[in-house]
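pinned: reference chain
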Amino acid sequence: MHSRTSPGDSLYWIENENKARIKCAKRTCPKRIHENDIDAVLDPENDELEIFMKRSKREYLLHEHRKHSIYYAFGGLIQRCPLCKALYTEYDGCNFVQCVNVRCKQRFCWVCNEPTDSLQHFAGRGCKLGWDDLFKICFILKFLAFTEGCLLVIFLPIVSTTLIYFGPLLVLITLPYQIISLLRECMRRLGQPPWAVTALAVSLYPIMMLVSVPFAIGSLLFLIPMSVAYCAVAIIKCIPAFSRACDILYFLSMLAGFFGFDQWRTILRENYEANRQRDIEIAHQEAELSESLPFFSCMS
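pinned: its C-alpha coordinates
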Protein backbone atom coordinates (compact mmCIF):
# COMPACT_ATOMS: atom_id res chain seq x y z
CA MET A 1 0.00 0.00 0.00
CA HIS A 2 1.63 3.22 -1.18
CA SER A 3 -0.72 5.75 0.40
CA ARG A 4 1.16 8.05 2.72
CA THR A 5 0.22 10.82 5.06
CA SER A 6 1.33 12.45 8.29
CA PRO A 7 -0.30 13.66 11.50
CA GLY A 8 -0.14 17.18 10.04
CA ASP A 9 -2.23 16.15 7.02
CA SER A 10 -4.78 14.50 9.28
CA LEU A 11 -4.91 17.62 11.46
CA TYR A 12 -5.90 19.79 8.48
CA TRP A 13 -8.44 17.48 6.83
CA ILE A 14 -10.08 16.22 10.03
CA GLU A 15 -10.12 19.31 12.23
CA ASN A 16 -10.47 22.09 9.64
CA GLU A 17 -12.37 20.43 6.78
CA ASN A 18 -14.35 17.77 8.72
CA LYS A 19 -13.47 15.24 6.01
CA ALA A 20 -14.36 11.59 6.45
CA ARG A 21 -12.27 10.53 3.42
CA ILE A 22 -8.68 11.71 3.17
CA LYS A 23 -6.79 11.41 -0.12
CA CYS A 24 -3.28 10.16 -0.54
CA ALA A 25 -0.67 12.90 -0.37
CA LYS A 26 1.30 11.38 -3.26
CA ARG A 27 0.53 13.31 -6.45
CA THR A 28 0.48 10.24 -8.73
CA CYS A 29 -1.67 8.14 -6.39
CA PRO A 30 -5.44 8.38 -7.05
CA LYS A 31 -6.38 6.34 -4.00
CA ARG A 32 -7.59 7.51 -0.62
CA ILE A 33 -5.97 6.89 2.70
CA HIS A 34 -7.17 3.59 4.11
CA GLU A 35 -8.53 3.42 7.63
CA ASN A 36 -5.50 1.53 8.90
CA ASP A 37 -3.32 4.41 7.60
CA ILE A 38 -5.27 6.88 9.73
CA ASP A 39 -5.07 4.56 12.71
CA ALA A 40 -1.32 4.24 12.17
CA VAL A 41 -0.46 7.95 11.89
CA LEU A 42 -2.73 8.82 14.83
CA ASP A 43 -1.90 5.78 16.96
CA PRO A 44 -2.05 6.96 20.61
CA GLU A 45 0.22 4.09 21.68
CA ASN A 46 3.06 4.97 19.27
CA ASP A 47 5.51 7.09 21.27
CA GLU A 48 7.57 7.88 18.14
CA LEU A 49 4.74 10.10 16.89
CA GLU A 50 5.25 12.46 19.83
CA ILE A 51 7.75 14.46 17.73
CA PHE A 52 4.91 15.30 15.33
CA MET A 53 1.93 15.60 17.65
CA LYS A 54 1.03 15.07 21.30
CA ARG A 55 -0.88 11.95 22.29
CA SER A 56 -3.93 13.88 23.50
CA LYS A 57 -4.19 15.60 20.12
CA ARG A 58 -3.90 12.30 18.25
CA GLU A 59 -6.64 10.76 20.39
CA TYR A 60 -8.87 13.76 19.69
CA LEU A 61 -8.28 13.62 15.92
CA LEU A 62 -8.87 9.87 15.79
CA HIS A 63 -12.16 10.31 17.65
CA GLU A 64 -13.20 13.13 15.29
CA HIS A 65 -12.26 11.11 12.21
CA ARG A 66 -14.36 8.15 13.30
CA LYS A 67 -17.27 10.47 14.05
CA HIS A 68 -16.98 12.09 10.60
CA SER A 69 -16.87 8.65 8.99
CA ILE A 70 -20.11 7.64 10.72
CA TYR A 71 -21.83 10.89 9.73
CA TYR A 72 -20.66 10.52 6.13
CA ALA A 73 -21.79 6.88 5.89
CA PHE A 74 -25.33 7.76 7.01
CA GLY A 75 -25.63 10.94 4.98
CA GLY A 76 -25.45 13.19 8.04
CA LEU A 77 -28.85 12.02 9.35
CA ILE A 78 -27.56 11.29 12.83
CA GLN A 79 -28.40 12.67 16.25
CA ARG A 80 -26.69 12.21 19.61
CA CYS A 81 -28.42 11.38 22.84
CA PRO A 82 -28.35 14.64 24.85
CA LEU A 83 -27.28 12.75 27.98
CA CYS A 84 -24.92 9.88 27.08
CA LYS A 85 -23.97 11.15 23.56
CA ALA A 86 -24.75 7.81 21.88
CA LEU A 87 -25.22 8.05 18.09
CA TYR A 88 -28.59 7.27 16.50
CA THR A 89 -29.64 7.18 12.85
CA GLU A 90 -33.00 8.43 11.64
CA TYR A 91 -35.93 6.06 12.21
CA ASP A 92 -38.68 7.08 9.82
CA GLY A 93 -41.85 8.26 11.55
CA CYS A 94 -40.29 8.37 15.03
CA ASN A 95 -39.49 11.84 16.39
CA PHE A 96 -40.01 10.99 20.07
CA VAL A 97 -36.89 8.90 20.67
CA GLN A 98 -35.70 7.02 23.75
CA CYS A 99 -32.05 6.12 24.25
CA VAL A 100 -31.59 2.34 24.41
CA ASN A 101 -28.68 2.63 26.84
CA VAL A 102 -29.94 0.87 29.98
CA ARG A 103 -28.06 3.37 32.15
CA CYS A 104 -29.50 6.35 30.30
CA LYS A 105 -33.02 5.81 28.90
CA GLN A 106 -33.19 9.52 28.09
CA ARG A 107 -36.08 10.59 25.88
CA PHE A 108 -35.41 13.35 23.38
CA CYS A 109 -36.81 15.04 20.29
CA TRP A 110 -35.21 13.93 17.03
CA VAL A 111 -36.00 17.24 15.30
CA CYS A 112 -34.28 19.65 17.73
CA ASN A 113 -32.26 17.10 19.77
CA GLU A 114 -33.59 18.55 23.03
CA PRO A 115 -34.27 16.23 26.00
CA THR A 116 -37.95 15.85 26.81
CA ASP A 117 -39.99 13.40 28.87
CA SER A 118 -43.40 14.66 27.81
CA LEU A 119 -45.41 14.88 24.60
CA GLN A 120 -46.11 18.52 25.49
CA HIS A 121 -42.83 19.35 23.75
CA PHE A 122 -44.55 18.64 20.41
CA ALA A 123 -47.58 20.86 21.10
CA GLY A 124 -47.54 24.35 19.63
CA ARG A 125 -43.89 24.27 18.55
CA GLY A 126 -41.93 23.61 15.39
CA CYS A 127 -41.34 20.01 16.46
CA LYS A 128 -44.06 17.56 15.46
CA LEU A 129 -44.69 13.91 16.22
CA GLY A 130 -43.94 11.42 13.47
CA TRP A 131 -46.56 9.16 11.93
CA ASP A 132 -45.26 6.15 13.88
CA ASP A 133 -45.47 8.12 17.15
CA LEU A 134 -49.11 8.93 16.43
CA PHE A 135 -49.84 5.29 15.59
CA LYS A 136 -48.43 4.16 18.94
CA ILE A 137 -50.46 6.77 20.82
CA CYS A 138 -53.68 5.57 19.15
CA PHE A 139 -53.51 2.14 20.81
CA ILE A 140 -56.30 3.26 23.19
CA LEU A 141 -58.58 3.98 20.23
CA LYS A 142 -57.79 0.54 18.76
CA PHE A 143 -58.59 -1.04 22.13
CA LEU A 144 -61.95 0.74 22.30
CA ALA A 145 -62.80 -0.12 18.69
CA PHE A 146 -61.99 -3.83 18.79
CA THR A 147 -63.12 -4.70 22.34
CA GLU A 148 -66.62 -6.02 22.94
CA GLY A 149 -69.07 -3.58 24.50
CA CYS A 150 -69.88 -5.93 27.38
CA LEU A 151 -66.20 -6.06 28.35
CA LEU A 152 -66.00 -2.26 28.25
CA VAL A 153 -69.01 -2.10 30.58
CA ILE A 154 -67.35 -4.58 32.96
CA PHE A 155 -64.21 -2.39 33.04
CA LEU A 156 -66.27 0.79 33.51
CA PRO A 157 -66.10 0.94 37.37
CA ILE A 158 -62.35 0.32 37.33
CA VAL A 159 -61.69 2.95 34.65
CA SER A 160 -63.91 5.58 36.27
CA THR A 161 -62.41 5.00 39.72
CA THR A 162 -58.87 5.16 38.35
CA LEU A 163 -59.47 8.38 36.43
CA ILE A 164 -61.52 10.32 38.99
CA TYR A 165 -59.91 9.19 42.26
CA PHE A 166 -56.39 8.03 41.48
CA GLY A 167 -55.78 10.52 38.66
CA PRO A 168 -55.61 13.61 40.92
CA LEU A 169 -53.59 11.63 43.47
CA LEU A 170 -51.09 10.75 40.77
CA VAL A 171 -50.79 14.42 39.80
CA LEU A 172 -50.34 15.37 43.46
CA ILE A 173 -47.40 12.96 43.80
CA THR A 174 -45.68 13.14 40.42
CA LEU A 175 -45.75 16.92 39.90
CA PRO A 176 -43.66 17.70 43.04
CA TYR A 177 -41.35 14.80 42.18
CA GLN A 178 -40.69 16.18 38.69
CA ILE A 179 -40.05 19.70 40.02
CA ILE A 180 -37.70 18.42 42.72
CA SER A 181 -35.87 16.29 40.13
CA LEU A 182 -35.25 19.36 37.97
CA LEU A 183 -33.98 21.35 40.96
CA ARG A 184 -31.66 18.51 42.01
CA GLU A 185 -30.25 18.27 38.49
CA CYS A 186 -29.60 22.03 38.44
CA MET A 187 -27.84 21.88 41.80
CA ARG A 188 -25.67 18.97 40.64
CA ARG A 189 -24.62 20.95 37.58
CA LEU A 190 -23.72 23.87 39.85
CA GLY A 191 -21.43 21.57 41.83
CA GLN A 192 -23.42 21.54 45.07
CA PRO A 193 -22.57 18.74 47.56
CA PRO A 194 -24.90 15.72 47.75
CA TRP A 195 -26.05 16.55 51.29
CA ALA A 196 -27.23 19.99 50.16
CA VAL A 197 -29.15 18.48 47.24
CA THR A 198 -30.83 15.93 49.52
CA ALA A 199 -31.65 18.56 52.16
CA LEU A 200 -33.27 20.78 49.54
CA ALA A 201 -35.35 17.89 48.19
CA VAL A 202 -36.58 16.84 51.64
CA SER A 203 -37.46 20.39 52.69
CA LEU A 204 -39.19 21.42 49.47
CA TYR A 205 -41.25 18.29 48.81
CA PRO A 206 -44.06 19.08 51.34
CA ILE A 207 -44.24 22.64 50.01
CA MET A 208 -44.42 21.39 46.43
CA MET A 209 -47.23 19.01 47.38
CA LEU A 210 -49.26 21.92 48.78
CA VAL A 211 -48.60 23.90 45.61
CA SER A 212 -49.72 20.90 43.53
CA VAL A 213 -53.15 20.66 45.20
CA PRO A 214 -54.81 23.17 42.79
CA PHE A 215 -53.32 21.31 39.82
CA ALA A 216 -54.61 17.99 41.17
CA ILE A 217 -58.10 19.43 41.56
CA GLY A 218 -57.86 21.07 38.14
CA SER A 219 -56.99 17.74 36.54
CA LEU A 220 -60.60 16.68 37.16
CA LEU A 221 -61.59 19.08 34.37
CA PHE A 222 -59.90 16.64 31.99
CA LEU A 223 -60.38 13.35 33.82
CA ILE A 224 -64.16 13.61 34.30
CA PRO A 225 -64.83 14.19 30.56
CA MET A 226 -62.52 11.27 29.78
CA SER A 227 -64.52 9.04 32.12
CA VAL A 228 -67.80 10.20 30.58
CA ALA A 229 -66.43 9.58 27.08
CA TYR A 230 -65.40 6.04 28.01
CA CYS A 231 -68.85 5.40 29.48
CA ALA A 232 -70.50 6.69 26.28
CA VAL A 233 -68.31 4.47 24.08
CA ALA A 234 -69.08 1.43 26.25
CA ILE A 235 -72.83 2.05 25.98
CA ILE A 236 -72.69 2.70 22.23
CA LYS A 237 -70.67 -0.49 21.68
CA CYS A 238 -73.49 -2.44 23.33
CA ILE A 239 -75.91 -1.35 20.57
CA PRO A 240 -76.05 -4.26 18.07
CA ALA A 241 -75.65 -2.09 14.95
CA PHE A 242 -72.49 -0.38 16.22
CA SER A 243 -71.12 -3.63 17.61
CA ARG A 244 -71.63 -5.32 14.24
CA ALA A 245 -69.87 -2.45 12.45
CA CYS A 246 -66.85 -2.81 14.75
CA ASP A 247 -66.85 -6.57 14.14
CA ILE A 248 -66.71 -5.90 10.40
CA LEU A 249 -63.76 -3.55 10.89
CA TYR A 250 -62.00 -6.19 12.95
CA PHE A 251 -62.67 -8.82 10.29
CA LEU A 252 -61.27 -6.50 7.61
CA SER A 253 -58.13 -5.91 9.67
CA MET A 254 -57.65 -9.67 10.09
CA LEU A 255 -58.18 -10.17 6.35
CA ALA A 256 -55.60 -7.48 5.59
CA GLY A 257 -53.19 -9.23 7.94
CA PHE A 258 -53.74 -12.52 6.08
CA PHE A 259 -52.56 -10.87 2.85
CA GLY A 260 -49.64 -9.16 4.58
CA PHE A 261 -51.05 -5.63 4.63
CA ASP A 262 -50.88 -5.44 8.42
CA GLN A 263 -47.15 -4.79 8.03
CA TRP A 264 -47.77 -1.46 6.29
CA ARG A 265 -45.58 0.36 8.80
CA THR A 266 -42.63 -1.89 7.95
CA ILE A 267 -43.31 -1.52 4.22
CA LEU A 268 -43.39 2.27 4.44
CA ARG A 269 -40.23 2.38 6.54
CA GLU A 270 -38.31 0.01 4.27
CA ASN A 271 -39.36 2.00 1.20
CA TYR A 272 -38.24 5.24 2.84
CA GLU A 273 -34.94 3.68 3.89
CA ALA A 274 -34.29 2.36 0.36
CA ASN A 275 -34.89 5.82 -1.12
CA ARG A 276 -32.67 7.41 1.52
CA GLN A 277 -29.83 4.97 0.84
CA ARG A 278 -30.13 5.71 -2.87
CA ASP A 279 -29.88 9.45 -2.18
CA ILE A 280 -26.82 8.86 0.03
CA GLU A 281 -25.10 6.85 -2.71
CA ILE A 282 -25.78 9.61 -5.24
CA ALA A 283 -24.43 12.21 -2.80
CA HIS A 284 -21.29 10.11 -2.27
CA GLN A 285 -20.73 9.78 -6.02
CA GLU A 286 -21.15 13.54 -6.51
CA ALA A 287 -18.70 14.18 -3.67
CA GLU A 288 -16.15 11.88 -5.32
CA LEU A 289 -16.47 13.65 -8.68
CA SER A 290 -16.37 17.18 -7.28
CA GLU A 291 -13.28 16.77 -5.10
CA SER A 292 -9.88 17.90 -6.31
CA LEU A 293 -6.33 17.70 -4.96
CA PRO A 294 -5.04 21.30 -4.82
CA PHE A 295 -3.94 21.01 -1.22
CA PHE A 296 -2.08 17.74 -1.72
CA SER A 297 -0.54 18.87 -5.00
CA CYS A 298 1.12 21.83 -3.34
CA MET A 299 2.34 19.58 -0.52
CA SER A 300 4.00 16.98 -2.80
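why pinned: The chain has three domains: 7-73+289-299, 80-133, 139-259. Confidence is low (pLDDT under 50) at residues 292-300.
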